[in-house]
Amino acid sequence: MRAEFVNPFLASLLNVLKTMASMELAPQKPRVKKDEVARGDVSGLIGMIGPKTKGSMSITFDEPLALEIMQRMLGERPNGINEEVTDMVGEITNMVTGGAKRILADRGYDFEMATPAVVSGRGHTITHKCDGAIIIMPFDSEYGKAFIEICFDG
Amino acid sequence: MRAEFVNPFLASLLNVLKTMASMELAPQKPRVKKDEVARGDVSGLIGMIGPKTKGSMSITFDEPLALEIMQRMLGERPNGINEEVTDMVGEITNMVTGGAKRILADRGYDFEMATPAVVSGRGHTITHKCDGAIIIMPFDSEYGKAFIEICFDG
């Protein structure tokens, strides 16, 4: 897990939410996840495979934050996590990973993206199982928290 | 999403649990997931990428079934879903996908596996976001239910 993999994902989430939802998240300091547990209500997960490494990435949102993003992106606010919200989280997952992929390809780290899956369930946690360290990037907002977690082999 | 992708995953889960945990699951008929929602307490998720397609797979367990597999595989039974259980579910996810990968490679469908991630949270659901149909394979046991879900683009 290389440190230079962190910022492209962090910058990509800020950019996607600013562009698509006029939402400014406040990024906290990225750190290695040890005993820390990041809980959230809806998460997008995606696998990545390159010639030199493979890994996985998740983006987890508190429900009120996900619903606020939904309202700003699509002009509608469901009462809870429904299929439109999971579609949106899947799309955000694709866009954030695609943005990071372009930045990292310019630096000589190529990878391909699998298709995303979206987890829905109050207070769930995700544990990435790879050989390298898990990096957690917390984000604050007035509507709730978000987390990116990434892990790459090697 | 090709129908011949289904049986290798189904057979691989039965084989892994029989071999590793002396656990016989009763497979139910695989079906296309439409409005159906498969809930569970702990899930392994993995991305797959091949030259012609990409997709994702999840295996979801009820907590009592996951704990019974844990006891049979490792001789210990924690009180709930802890890191040892998520490690085991990640390993099962790798083994099942690896088994299916070998069967499918023999048939001319090659893919690479990303690293798995494990979701923990009571009654969570997973929605695979790909272009193809989502296939759900339910399994029964006296300890609880399990589900495989797979989805491939194209």
UniProtKB/TrEMBL annotation, chains A, B:
Keyword Metal-binding: no
Domain Chemotaxis phosphatase CheX-like: 42-139
Keywords: Chemotaxis
Highest taxon above the source species: Bacteria
Entry's Gene Ontology BP terms: chemotaxis
Organism: Photobacterium proteolyticum
Pfam families, sorted: CheX
Signal peptide from the UniProt entry: none
Presence of the UniProt keyword Membrane in the record: no
Designated name of the protein: Chemotaxis protein CheX
